[in-house]
Design a protein that fits this description.
The chain has 164 residues and is mostly helical. It has helices spanning 3-7, 12-27, 33-48, 50-68, 83-87, 141-144, 160-163, and strands at 74-76, 99-101, 108-110, 132-134, 155-157. The strands form 2 sheets. A 3-stranded antiparallel beta sheet has the order 3-2-4, with no helix packed on it. It has a two-stranded antiparallel sheet with strand order 1-5. The longest helix is centred in the middle third of the chain and has 19 residues, at 50-68.
């Protein structure tokens, strides 16, 4: 996708397609129901308020631009509870429950006995690739509000040289 197209991404269907493309990159085409349900729940909350959709796209573009210029972008606040924000690269925090995922074959194993994926033991997937450990068990309501009507608030920490 080129920059001109990216700036036009504002309609709900295109936004949903982008989120699912990013989820397929990480979790494969046959994403588990647990992941799909979380994505669908968040998408319904984002699409409930169009201002939220714009907030996500502007945030994505700002973070991408800063990273392309070599600047680290820190997020703070409740944005870490959004799987959509994670998939779009706005935050590095994955709010799903603790899980392993294979970057090679896209195998995913959830482990509810852990609240944080980084606490899990190292493990190798059935395909022989080392699993990535992920997930921090943060509910979407932390960011979107109980009924999903909260206007999203994405806070950043940009390097002072980049804030200009």
């Amino acid at each position: 996708m080129n920059k001109k197209e990216e700036l036009k991404i504002v309609n709900k269907e295109t936004f949903k397609r982008l989120v699912y493309e990013k989820s397929f990159e990480k979790y494969g085409k046959n994403i588990q129901a647990r992941i799909k349900d979380r994505i669908d729940k968040e998408l319904s909350m984002v699409c409930y308020n169009e201002l939220s959709l714009y907030s996500f796209m502007i945030a994505r573009q700002l973070v991408e631009r800063a990273k392309n210029h070599g600047w680290t972008v820190g997020n703070r606040g409740s944005v870490a509870s959004s799987l959509i924000a994670h998939l779009l690269g706005i935050t590095q925090i994955n709010p799903l429950e603790a899980h392993y995922y294979c970057p090679n074959c896209h195998n995913v194993e959830f482990h509810d006995e852990f609240s944080c994926g980084v606490d899990m033991e190292d493990k190798v997937c059935q395909c022989g690739t080392k699993f990535e450990k992920d997930g921090f068990t943060i509910p979407p309501e932390t960011f979107f509000g109980k009924d999903g009507s909260k206007v999203v608030d994405i806070d950043y920490n940009f390097a002072h040289e980049y804030q200009k």
